[in-house]
Structure formats: C-alpha cells, structure tokens
Specification:
The complex is a heterodimer of chains A (161) and B (763).
Chain A: H1 2-24, H2 35-62, H3 68-92, H4 99-121, H5 128-158
Chain B: H1 2-17, E1 36-39, H2 60-63, H3 70-73, E2 95-99, E3 104-108, H4 126-133, H5 156-159, H6 166-170, H7 178-186, H8 190-198, E4 201-204, E5 232-235, E6 245-248, H9 255-262, E7 264-266, H10 278-281, H11 286-289, H12 305-309, H13 319-323, H14 347-351, H15 354-358, E8 368-372, H16 373-376, E9 393-400, E10 406-412, E11 416-421, E12 424-427, H17 430-437, H18 443-455, E13 463-468, E14 471-475, E15 481-483, E16 496-501, E17 504-507, H19 521-534, E18 543-555, E19 561-579, E20 582-585, H20 589-598, E21 605-606, H21 607-620, E22 625-630, E23 633-637, E24 643-646, E25 654-657, H22 683-686, E26 688-690, E27 695-696, E28 702-704, H23 705-708, H24 713-722, H25 726-762
Parallel strand pairs in B: 21-27
Antiparallel strand pairs in B: 1-6, 2-3, 4-5, 7-8, 8-9, 9-10, 10-25, 11-12, 11-22, 13-14, 13-16, 14-15, 16-17, 18-19, 19-20, 22-23, 23-24, 26-28
Helix pairs in contact in B: 7-8, 18-20
The chains are: A mainly alpha (161), B alpha+beta (763).
Chain lengths: 161, 763
Amino acid sequence: MFKILAVLSLIVGAAAAKCGSSSCGRAGRKPVRFPMVDKFFVLIVGLSLAVLALTGFYALLFGHPLSGYVLICHTGAGGAFAGSLAVLAVLRAEAEIGAGRFLFWALLVGGLGVVLTAVVMMQPWFGTHGQEVLVDLHRCSSFLAVIGGFGCCGSLLLEKS
Amino acid sequence: MRASIVLLTIGAAGLLAAPRGFADEPWDGGRTVPVHRIPLNDPDGEGIVPSMSSAKPLSTSQTCGMCHDYGKVSGGWHFNSSSGKAAAGRPGEPWVLVDGLTGTQLPLSYRGWSGTWNPSAVGLTQWDFTKMFARHMPGGDTGEPADCFADPHARWTVSGKLEVNCLACHSGSHAQDHSEWVRQIGRENFAWAATAASGLGEVGGMALRVKSTWTMNDGPNPDDKEYAVPPYVKYLTAQFDSKNRTVFQIQKPADQSCLNCHSASPMCAKKEDVDKDVHSRAGFKCVDCHRNGINHSIVRGYETEAVERKDASVGDFSCRGCHIEEPAKGGGRMGAPHPKHGGIPPLHFEKLSCTACHSGQQPGATPTDMRVSRANRLGIHGRALWFTDAPFIQEPVFVKGSDGKIAPNRVMWPAFWARRAAGKLTPIRPDELTKSAKGILDAGQQIGSVLKGIAQLGDENGEAVFVASGKLFRVNTDGDVDLDTKFAPPAGSPSGFLWLKEGKLSPLVPDFKPEGAQLEPTVESGLLNVLQALALDDPATGTPALARGKKIYTRSDDGSLTTSDSSEDRAVAVWGRMINEKFQPIVPDFAVRAVVETAGTQQSFIEEQLVAMLQALAETDKSTEFVYVGRGYVFALGKDGKLAASSNPAAEPVFWPVAHNVRSAVASLGAKACTECHSADAAMLFGRVVAGGPLKTKTVAVKTMVEMSKLDGTYHKLFGFSFTMRPLFKMMLWGCCGLMVGILGVGVLSCLQQIARYFGRKE
C-alpha cells in the first residue's frame, strides 16, 4: 500500500512540476517581495525534499529499516526542510494563485504533517503502537508533501524567468 | 457361575478404565501436589529397610521412577547435554575447566556452542566430566553412562551411577543440602549423594579411597575402618514409619533449588546490596516461566525458542510472550504489564532484544566482574571456601545473537595451554601439565610451603610471614600465599621470611656476624630449629641452608650446625637449599617477583613464568609446538626464543546471553535519556572489554562494545554526537510547526472569509 502510494506520489509530483512550469508560469503567481531569498528557500525546500524522498522512499520501497547513515541524512535533510518550508510559507503564502496555490497548500499541509509527526515521535508521549501510527502518518503526510513540494518547487525552479 | 462372569467382567472393565500407569499421565486436573509418603528403593529395586546397617542408598530411578517416567525425565534439558540428540538451542553458560596452578579456564560444552570445546576433544571422559562438574549438576547426563566399562580409568562400579537427583529440585525439605551433595561428589560417592543431600540419612566413607574392585554389594571393609572406608548410609529411622515409608516434601522447584546452580552476582558486591530479579520481587518463582512437563524440556524463555522447538506455547514465556499484546495471543499473561516504551522508535525492537535494556548489570566504562555458581563454585557452604575468582567472567557485553538482535552477554576469555600443529590448537588438560609446572608456576605454593614449614616451630615466635617489596604475605589453607592488604610493613623493614609478632617484624634468626668463630647459643639453636623445620621429606629438594657473609650454615644429620665457605659474600642472611653442593635461594627470585607482581590482582603468573613453562614443555616433546592461550592472544616462543603473541579464533572470548536479573522499567537502559546509548561515549556502545585471564602481561586484547557487536563505531559516534544538538533541533521543529500552523490558520480564515463573501454576494 505505502509502496504504491510512494511511487504514485513521485509520479504525480513530477507531473505537477512539469505541468506547473509550462502552464502556470508567472501568470499563476503574484510577484514576491524578496525574489532572491524566495528562490533560495525554494531551492532548499526542493533539494531537502528530494533527499528526504530518496532516503525515506528507498527504505520504504526496498524494505530496509531507516537506520545508519541514511537515517542521519534523512534527519539532517528534515531539519533543512522544516526550516526552509516555514520561511517559504511566510514568503509565499499570498503569492500563489490559481493551480499553484493548491500545490503550495498541499506542500504546506503535507510538510506540517511530516514535521509534526517527526517531532512528536521524539517526545516520550506515545508508546510502541502510537509510534507506529505516527510513522504511518509521517508517511502519508510525506506523500502529500512530495506531490505539493515537487509540483510547487519544481514549477518555480523550472519556469522560464 | 453367572456371578463369577459378572465379577470378572467388572474387574476387566475396571482395569481398562483405570490403567496402571505413570502418575502424571493422564493428569486428572487436580492442582494439588500429592503427599509423597512412599517407601524407598535401592539401585537394585529392592525396598530399603532403614534400620538395617547394610541398607543401600536410595535410587531415584527405582523410587521416583515407580510412578514417574524416569526415562522421559532423564531426557530433559538438564540431563541431555552429552546425549548428542538434543538441539543445542541458544548458547548457554559453558562448563569451565578451571585450574589455578596452570592458569587454565577452558570453556567446555557437549552442545557445540560457539567458542566451547567438546570435553571429549580435550580428553575428558564422562567420568572425568562428572567428577569435575557434578557438584553443580542435578545428576543424570554424564553421571549415567550407558557403558560403565567403556572408560578403563573410570570407577563407576565403585562410585555407582549418579542418577537424576529429583530431590535436588523438587524437595521442599529444609534438610535438602546442596553442599552435602558437593561433598559426596568430591568423595566419589555418586550413588549415595542424593541420599546424603536429602537429609534422610548420614553417609560416611569415601568411594575415592576404596580399591577399584569394591562394589556396593561388598559392604564394609573389615581391614580398614579409618582410611579406605567404603561408602555407607545410616538412615535417620525417625523419619520412617512402621512400613519403612518416609514423607518426601515434594513441591514445584523453589527458587533456592535453582539458585544453587544458577546464581550470579557482581564480584565485589555485598550480599545485602544485591537486588532480586524484578519478577522475583513481584512474587514469581523461577518455574512460573521456566516450565516443563514430565519430559523436563524446560522452557528457556528466549525469543526464538518457540520456532526452534516448533512449539508455539513455549513462546508464551518469553519476554514478548507475557508483556507484548498481540491480537492472536492476547499477551499480558500472568498479569504482565504492557510496556509503554514512550518515545522509543519501533526500530529499537527490531535491533535489540528486550534484555538489552532490561537485564543484567548496568553497562559501565568496563563490564562488571561477575561470579556465577557453576563456573566459580558458589553456594557451597562449610568451613572451606570453595569459590574461586577464576574464571573471570564479565557482564554485560553487547553482542548480536543468531536472531540478529543485540543482547547483553556474559563473556569469558579462554585461557589454556595447547599443542599447535598445522595452525590447529589442541588444549592440554591441566593434570598433564602439573609435572612441568612444578617449580615454575607454583610460585605462591613455594613460598607457602616454606611458611608452613617454619610455622611448625610454634606460635611463641609469632606468625611466619613473607615480606617482599613492601608487601606482606601470609600462607593460606591451600598452601598458597595471600597478600595482607591491611598490614603495610614499616619503611626499612627487612624482607624475606620473618616472624610477625604483635605487629612487629623480626628475622627468623637474630642477625649475627659470620666472621665470629662461634655463634651465640641462642642464635645457633634458633638457626638449627629453622633448618630442621625447612627440611622436606624429599631429599632431591636439597638440604636447608642459611647463607650469610661468606659462610653457609647447614644442619648435619646428627643435629649439629655445619659451616662451609661460600664464594659469594652476602650482606644479609639468605635462606636456601644446598642442591648438588651448590647454594640456591629457597624460593627463586622469579617466584618472588611473580608473587609480588600478581599480588592483589586477578592474575596468577607472569610472562617470565610463561616463558619458562613453554621452555619446560618444549623439553618434554621437541617435535611439538606448545602455546598458551590467554588475554585474547596465543603466546608462543619464537625462533629467537622470545615470547610472541598472535591472534587466533581460539583466543576469542566465549559469550552467552544474560537473561536475569531483570531490572525494573525505571532502571532499564535508556529510561532516563536517549543519551544513555546515543552519545559519543555511551557505555553500551563504547565501553571497553579488557581480556581477563590468569596471565599478567601488557599484551592484552581490548575491544569496544561496537567491535563486539560488529557495529559501525564511526556511525554510532556521529549519531551519538547528533543527540547533543537534539534539544535545539526539537525546539526548531516546534517553532517551524508553530509558524506553519499560524500561516495555515490565516489561510483557512482567509478561505472562510472568501466563502462567507461568496454566500453574502449570493444573498
């Protein structure tokens, strides 16, 4: 189930990035106040999301537990993703209009779910079963974040300036 | 006629309905333990008449076996190691052949566990094994050989077989005495041991001293009532009724019975400081989890046991079986609380056994030195101290098990002498080495024998002690010497053999001037007394002598003092022996060095002795290479005659998992903080395991826990280091979440506003 969703989310995310870049363009967005800063954080979100998807989905798809150096990469990229996504949320909350708005809000909702489940897992609040539920929620949120993130960031990075 | 047919029919039906079988089969559902008021049978199956002086010892196979299937019982886990038929299962504690003189601690097992040697491969027969280890065995196994005559050196016909001692575990009598069992094993009174240990009778005599043609049927030895007294039993007749029946206080095995052979405690701990297992404190008995049926295939309780035994019910008594709720099983058996494991990622339960966090001693910078019943001979009470510091066992050492999970283990580094041929090591039995070891490895014994000799002079002079390098040594009951850690000789005190009286040290003989024509009478008489006390029965050891100045003093056969000249001028008196008309110190210098250097340590001999021993062994057989395995290396003499150490799988440590004591949840590893394991210096990962053993050397194997567990140390350092930033990381994530929630909230409100406007416009 999760494996299929992971593959689907990657495909849909890539398709959204492609469509977003060709159809939305600048017409679908309002200008932002700090374009360079905006671009930088979009890049960070995109890259960190790519690392997260690579490490997380690799473990998921190939049945390996997320551990070792892969886990360190995943956690490190997670920090970068959370921070840059929060900044991006501030910068772009009102910039997105049209189809891009849906991708952006999908990224924000998915990203919030991913970060929230990750940080809650680090707290001693949930036992083994709760942890397992949180892992599942983390995965589900990540699918949304991947679709929204790849779609939103991909279109922003690929669009002709 | 009709009545007869009816009676016969009823009788036959009765026989069919209630077949005479073993007491346990089938179980009637009653949960009480029946009163065992039963007559005793001897090994021949004859009823024992306790009042008869010729009564034989009780035989469990003939007494308990009348109602319980002895054949099934004797196939149980405690009795089947040498059968070769039982599955080995998870490695357990090996038997350890310990010999203090030769510095041997060799792990043995018939079960083929990794790192152990099969006793037969080391030249130990079932007889040898039984003699060595039956002290902590419940009988059966090697004690009941199929062929008593297979081993020509064995004395089974004298000792009798060591049957499964049902009472060792099942007796609830306060008279049941494990120490008595051990004493009887030591006397080779195998067939009498169960009777003596049960308290049903007094057992005297020693099969050990009886000639090998004697059998139980021969009765007392009319020619010797002092030394070679055959074993006999005098039953305590007050414990029997008029029908020669006694009441066995049978019960499910009590913890005390298990702990006779399964105790483990930190070496330096005080008895009052050692906590019980958390399950024991909750009122559980060992057998509540370690259950078995009549076949005595006792549940060992490890995770994979159920799969290995192809018996799902066994799994109920593992940690998970009771504590983890699974829909199919239920869990929570026997009221076991479900663990919360709050905040612990589930990955931990894939990589670690439950015991990793919950069992054994808390990991430290180095593991804790332990003593365990079977290896260190614990729980044998009496005037003699039976326990030994060797073998050196430590816990916890974290190692991956066959299930791939990291679990705490006890560890012991093997130490033994061996022959090496084509790279393969074959251990040598300590008794084969005794002759070569004499004069080399028995440094403490050499000093001890001198002290014992001097002690014959009486207490009026004080206590004979040995002083060297500012340390004072006393002879112990084994003839070796112990360091007196409380008494420090004052600065400037003389060295060597001295009198200690009222805290003051004085020479055995008052100092004198050797240049003088004649010694003072008191000095001469004192000197003669000491020389006489030091004389040994064996003339090959030489005549005792005292060297002082350029003179050597000996005691002639007529008891007078003889003086001879020495080429060496000695400023202080030196006690020695004249061997081949040459003066030699009574204790060689290297022996003194060995005793001084090893005093107060776990070690018993030094490299100098090791080299001498290897040379002595080489002299016995020049075609064979002799080596010593210890401290994680193999030591051998190189072509240049110098000691060389090399690695070898045979020198690697032997592990066995720790299950108990189980600590409470709050005392488990990681309960206080993740950094108990995830830090750059976590004991569980980076604790150092130093190879223990009897050899004092600087060439010692040291491994970290990550090496032992075959984990990536660099990764765990890095991962551990990341935990120093974790609080900040979490704060940052919470901050990001807050910000995103805020923006999402604004977004949602804005969305709601637009919806409201939309409906407003519509109206």
